[in-house]
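Hi all, long-time lurker, first post. I run a small reading group and we've been trying to get comfortable going from sequence to structure in the token notation. Rather than ask abstract questions, I figured I'd post a concrete chain and ask someone more experienced to write out its structure so we can walk through it together at our next meeting. Sequence below, copied exactly:
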Amino acid sequence: MIPGAATIRVSLTDPSRAWPHPRAAIRDEGGKALEVSRTTATVAARWILRVWPEADWTRPHTFDIQRATLTCSDLVATGRSR
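-- Answer (accepted) --
Happy to help. Here is the structure in token form:
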């Protein structure tokens, strides 16, 4: 999908928009942000949103490309479970 990408963080809270809009932050295995076009990021975010419609999209989620898993991003960042 995106060469060199390891994770895609998806949310509906694009800071440049006043309404919900798909947003994706793509990172490599080292955690470095990859530069992709706005179109590529939006398509990746929409694909993930459509694959997991049952996820609580009021919170950001991270898609791990190698494991094909989706995790709530605040759980990944803090290491806590709820």
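A couple of things your group might point at:
The beta strands are 7-11, 23-27, 61-64, 69-72.
The two ends are 31 Å apart (CA to CA).
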